[in-house]
Amino acid sequence: MEFAPALIEQLRHASRVVFFTGAGVSAESGLPTFRDAQTGLWANYKPQDLATPEAFARDPQTVWRWYQWRRRVHADVTPNPAHHAIAAFEARLPEAVLVTQNVDRLHELAGSPAPIHLHGSVFRNKCASCGIEMPEVPHDLETPPACPDCGGLCRPDVVWFGEGLPPAPWQAAVDAAVKAEVVISIGTSATVHPAARIPLVAREAGALVVQVNPEPTPQDKIALNLRGKAGAVLPALLAAVWGE
Ligand code: OAD
Asked: Where are the domains of the chain?
């Protein structure tokens, strides 16, 4: 794969690089993206209809069972070359920051030291009523346990449609974007706000935005676009910059 020599030069000399990832970075590990049709048991449901506080209030068992199924799927997948390449970039760049919208743990499994999770993690739980952190439970438990403090129902600690982002990760991501020299946005449709503002904030502050995606996105016009799958483009970029 060929890259513009100016891009390789800029990456070789940049230290404040932000990696911003979405579901596409995990697609080659076998996790469907949000805009892919669901398969199997859940083919008749749309994530947009399950991942909401209203859906959980109306039918907690169905929403809980969907997350328990997703946890079983997530527990079986492993990082792909894109996750490994990002971790290798981070190892070279002490000031790099990884911001992810993903609720999987594939970045951690690939060795990324501290990904900022804007949308939480399917592997964490909290009480739907009082918000207290609750422990992980076996992934085949079919009904949500009750909170020991208030009796509310256990739910995954992820951000649902219509909910705000956790303030500390969001602030850390904005701070990194404002200071970034380069943002590499990977595998995101760049449509879900406020997360999708991260590359925009960085661009407004003068950063170069590089986008890795086989498909166009609304942010094509502010980015240098590398069309292709993350699992092919990122290892090639790593090799071009560092010879790894
Ligand atoms: P989307 O499902 O919206 O978009 C996935 C993007 O990945 C698309 O632009 C695809 O073209 C691209 N893609 C697919 N395969 C790829 C590959 N192999 N390499 C690179 N790119 C690939 O996922 P997100 O942008 O992450 O929010 O969605 C953002 C948020 O919307 C999610 O975090 C989730 C969802 O609602 C919450 O859960 C709150």
From this structure: 1-31+78-119+165-244, 33-76+121-158
CA distance 135 to 144: 12
**Ligand 1 neighbours (beta carbon < 6 A):** 22-24, 27-28, 33-35, 51, 101, 119, 158-159, 187-189, 191-192, 212-215, 217, 229-231
- Find all residues with CB under 8 Å of 93, minimum gap 6, and list them: 14, 15, 17
pLDDT digits (tens, 9 = 90+) for 175-228: 999 999 999 999 999 999 999 999 999 999 999 999 999 999 999 999 999 999
Cis peptide leading into residue 194 (ω within 30°): yes
Rounded CA separation 182/201 (Å):
12
Enter the pTM of the model: 0.96
Which residues are tagged catalytic?
A: 119
* Residue 36, pLDDT score: 72
For domain 1-31+78-119+165-244, give the CATH number. 3.40.50.1220
Q: Which fold has domain 33-76+121-158?
A: SIR2/SIRT2 'Small Domain' (3.30.1600)
- Rounded CA-CA distance 51/158 in Å is 9
